[in-house]
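We give this protein:

***
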Amino acid sequence: MKIFGDFEFDEKAMQLRREGNSTSVPGQCLELLALMLEHPGELITRQEIRSTLWPDSNVDFDHSLDVLVNRLRIALGDSSKQARYIQTIPKKGYRFIERVGVKPSGNGASSRVRWTRTLGRYAAVAVLAALLALLLARTRYDKFVPHRGAPASTLGR
């Protein structure tokens, strides 16, 4: 998961969240965002974007890309005049300028919790088994070993 500003972007689910709330963004905008977040701070040329988002298409590329970037900026609350996230490099491409961090996925923590719970269950079963073994041994022991003060002659009967 990538984090920047008030946003979190889950690249597996292709979902953008702002302060924990899901943000409605069209599919190709999310693809463009994913491409930019893979290379923060680097120039992504218009040709790279075209080959990634429209590989075999005959759309009016320049207009489509301009519309797409504008929609993404609106979703991010960004503007071309005072860019916080997407910087335009005229006639060349775009650069994602906000610092991007990586938030560890919850899988590591949840697997650790599952492992701890499993270990706790095994430990509880082991303790119960040990207690049962002690109780069983105690009853068997009392049967074969005389109590203090009991006559020794009662052993063989």
User: Anything to note?
Assistant: The first helix runs from residue 27 to 38.
